[in-house]
Amino acid sequence: MSNETSNLSTLTVGFIGGGILQPDQIHVTATNLSNLTQRWSPLAVTHLGTDNFALIERCTIVFLCIKPQMLPAFSYSIDVRVKKEGRPDCTNKLIVSILAGVTLDQLYSRLSCLGTTTIVRTMPNTPMQVGLGCTVYCSAKDTDVTPNDTVKELYSSLKIMLGSLGKAFEVQENQINAVTGLAGCGPAYVYEFIEALADGGVKQGIPRAMALQLAAQTVMGAAKMVLATGKHPAVLKDEVCSPGGATIHGVHALEQGSMRGTVMNAVEKATKRSEELS
What we know:
12 helices; disordered N terminus; ProC C-terminal domain-like fold; alpha/beta; eight-stranded mixed β-sheet
């Protein structure tokens, strides 16, 4: 076991709003305890509650999983508790945000009541539910506070946690909107393609259930080929296209429909909308 992996066993991780960690290391809070218990109890997580302030005090890594529009109310409730009970020591903690469109500057401003702390902004996508997601993350590089050794270890542990759910990439914050347009929204584009591919099979007489399985498996296999071989997708495409064969005729039809340009436009539109929401 590596030192980085072994460090995970000492963490206490909290999720506000919402494989490699033991259930007793996880703390979760939400406004509705009944719904929280229903969702997390089957996973043997027992540290469930509604007290966000207490969770921040207990945990070393805190995932902020609330809706973006709930941030003002959340920060106000924490500020009230700080004024009443005193500020928790957050020097050796990470606050990890998955709030779409909320910048690091906004997060630091809203959570200034916590004092010195390190905030990490992340953007995951939905395939992480099956361990095949991709998450990008960033932290403020121009902060006046130099991370201490404990925070650096926590940051390394966070990378391991995010990577365990697929792939994790560290980016500059100004790239997050573009990544949202590509990877955050990308699953929806792929679902559209899978549905269309299956519909094409149904039109040619393949039973729908089988067509859907064939389409999904084909997309998953093709993606795996790109990742496993390291070859450019165009090279892999050419390897399938025999001269005068069925595949090149199908590819020609896709080109006539401007598939590549349409997909690029989708990423551009989604990126611009993400910028508007920031």
